[in-house]
Amino acid sequence: MLLLLPILIPLAAALLAALLPARGQQMIGVAAALAQVLAAGTLLAVLPEGGRVSLMLGNWPQPYGIELVADTLSAALVLVSALLGLAVMLYSFGRDDQESATRNATTTPLMLGLLASVAAVFLAADLFNLYVWFELMLIATLGLLVGHGSARGNEAAFKYLALNLLGTLLVLVAVALIYAASGQLNFAALQVAGQWPDVAAGLRPYLGLLLLALLLKAGALPLFAWLPASYPVLPPAVLALVGGLLTKVAAYVLLRLSGQVFAVHELWLEALGWLALLTMLVGVLGAAYHWDVRRILALHIVSQVGYLLLGIALASPAAAAGTAYFAVHNILVKANLFLIAGLMFASAGHYDLRHIGGLYAARPLLAVLFLISAFSLVGVPPSTGFWGKFMLLREAFEQERYVWGGGALAVGLLTLYSMSKIWLEGFWKAHPEPAASAGAIPLPAYAAVLLLTGLILVMALYPEPFIHLAQVATAGFWHQGSGT
Amino acid sequence: MMLMLILSLSVLVAASVLLILSRDTLRLVVGLAMLGGAANLMVFLAGRPGSVLPPIIAAGAETLPAAANPLPQALVLTAIVIGFALLCFALVLIANLARQDARQDSDALRANEPVATDPIKPPVMEP
After folding, report:
1. By the 8 A CB rule, do A236 and A342 touch?
2. Of A92, A154, B17, B113, which is least surrounded by CB within 10 A?
3. Is A483 part of a structural domain of the chain?
4. Global confidence as pTM
């Protein structure tokens, strides 16, 4: 039952919130996010170290029933996504300025629906269930993108729909083919079935199709065009939730499937490594071109997904632990930067760096909060980004992947370029239009940013338990050995 | 039966790829819907279609040798419902897009990503 709560709480709250006026929706949103945090925290706390809890819905025996499984990795990620949900719900709590004008009656219910489906993807233990929750994520995100039905919202939703619907259809086709080849959908049963050499050989092409579809969802190199085309239309709180979570969810599924469930071929891992390197480079170079804070940060999502793919391509327990730590770091830091971008907009009146400035003098606290998150994204020691990149890069150099590791280091430098651009243009230089009035920042919005910054600081300054947790969570990964 | 299903599957996939590659927004959505139909057919094909025996094991028997597998049929039902919901959403979306711009050309959708006029810097977007 505890396993169902992180999914059921936001789903029930979404239905309830749909019936309430704006103020009631905000209260339900915060209450549901808080309840989800508590449920997810309890779930993580009751898990035996390295163990798992499973629930067969409807009491059908394995492998026929729908199974939900929480191990340390999925429970920790559910907790992180719930904490992010709490932050974004707090961020827009009690606002009645231009922030609330970008929202409508469907925003809060759809955000809760998104939180429920993300938690369900983390807890799903069979392929078809995974596909259904991916579809729910897609539907909720489409609703959020359309928003008020403005020309830009519709256009963003159309571009998002065209590529992501193709992605989910490819997932469905791959699931059908994998089922036809192995007769199984359940992860544990697929793991057993894959140990038969002839089944493993038959699964290989279909597995490639599934991984391709997940790469599209994660925003890897040739297939990320939907991401910068759609994300910047979202209001800040929604952008933090969507941009912080969705691509990382797909990366988690890639890690779970290739690290634990299937035996992935070496050649595929080699290709993934090079793809990860190119994804990092193209994402960060695209970000260097842009001057709109939201676009800079959106393209940095692509670049950071490259690090996660690199961790998967390295295919070792140490790299898997690094990937898990990096995913948590990236969810928190990226979402926090999007929220800070929203506060920069509220204070200076524009998202484009050519039209804002002077924020260091006007909002010193915001400047400090930005610096903490920006340094974490770059990976300056001792920040969360540093620990995550350190774990990944040490593994890359130990496996003598010097080009991959060196490329990742160079991408870190280019990330520093983008972040110093935001700092110099947004915070340091004087405001180009000094008459522009600075709006006040409401307290709950600061509280949301402070909550995320606090989590980032704890993970950065006291990383040992978190790294240990990541190692426990991924202990069984790559156990079957690659290339089998 | 199997041959017919496979032939219709290949026709569906070929037609949907042709439509998805089109720049017309309505054709793209119809193509995606057809690809969804092809995906559903593929799930259906995964479960030994062709038998008309009900999948009920007789009393005393252990196995059911000749019946179709009911699981893919349950899966395909779920996928059809989701696909239908998304198709409805997509049709309303492109109807709204057509109201804003009668060309219905996906290359003309540049409100969000305007063409750069400056050779170095990107255009400024109003928030």
Report:
1. yes
2. B17
3. no
4. 0.94
Burial of B4 (0-12, 13-18, 19+ CB in 10 A): exposed
Task: Give the type of residue at B100.
Answer: Q
Helices in A183-292 by DSSP H: which ranges? 187-193, 197-218, 226-230, 236-256, 266-289
**Average pLDDT across chain A, whole number:** 91
pLDDT at A270 over 50: yes
Residue A60 clears pLDDT 90, i.e. is over it: no
- Side chain identity, residue A420: S
Q: Which of residues 58-77 of B touch A (CB under 8 A)?
A: 71-72, 75
Domain count, chain A: 1
| pLDDT confidence of residue B58 | 78
Does residue A283 lie within any of the structural domains? yes
**Element (H or E) spanning B89, and its range?**
helix B70-100
C-alpha pair distances (Å), A13 with each of A9, A69, A244, A265, A464: 6, 23, 21, 43, 36
Higher pLDDT, A348 or A403: A403
A418-475 pLDDT, tens digit each: 999 999 999 999 888 876 666 778 888 999 999 999 999 999 999 999 999 999 999 8
Q: Which of residues 29-48 of B touch A (CB under 8 A)?
A: 32, 35-36, 38-40, 42-43, 45-46
Half-sphere exposure of A3 (CA within 13 A, CB side): 19
Residues in A closer than 8 angstroms to B55, CB to CB, are none
Q: Is residue A395 predicted with pLDDT exceeding 60?
A: yes
Inter-residue contact A374 to A419 (CB < 8 Å): yes
| Residue B61 DSSP SS3 | coil
| Residues facing A68 on adjacent strands | A55, A124
Residue A479 domain-assigned (yes or no): no
Q: What is the pLDDT of residue A483?
A: 39
Question: Any CB–CB contact under 8 A between A2 and chain B?
Answer: no
Contact yes or no for B104/B97 (Cβ under 8 A):
yes
Measure the CA–CA gap between B9 and B77, rounded to whole angstroms: 17
Domain boundaries, chain B: 12-50+70-103
By mean pLDDT, which of A145-159, A415-429, B99-113 is the weakest? B99-113
A339 touches chain B (CB under 8 A): no
Contact residues on chain B for A154, CB-CB shorter than 8 A: 93, 96-97, 100
Note whether residue A457 is domain-resident: yes
